[in-house]
Design goal:
This protein has 112 residues and is of the alpha+beta class. It is built from 4 helices and 4 strands. α2 crosses α4. The protein starts with a strand and ends with a strand.
Length: 112
Amino acid sequence: MKGKMKVKVELWFTAQGQLAINEFENHELIESFSRHMKTLTKKYMIVTSVPLDDNQDIASAGVLNVLLETKSLEVDMFFRELGRDMKNPLNKRFDGKLGNIFKAKVVTEQSS
């Protein structure tokens, strides 16, 4: 792959993930996911953003929208690791053990 790939990804929360995110305000979810994704960007060479317009009410929608720019093909690995990393902050307010908290679905891809 020569150029960067622009990707829109939807993170669909599982039943357990939905219960966990219901304990948070929308801005807290955006902040926490953004912070954890930023940490992973160094490892995966991926630039991420969480657009506010597409994430007005994450808990009600059951989905978090994410935009990526990458030269890497490791998008799946990035989101698997993000899912593991996000269990810690979500567990702080969730009474129980969390399994998978979301499933990543690539919605659009554009090469540049």
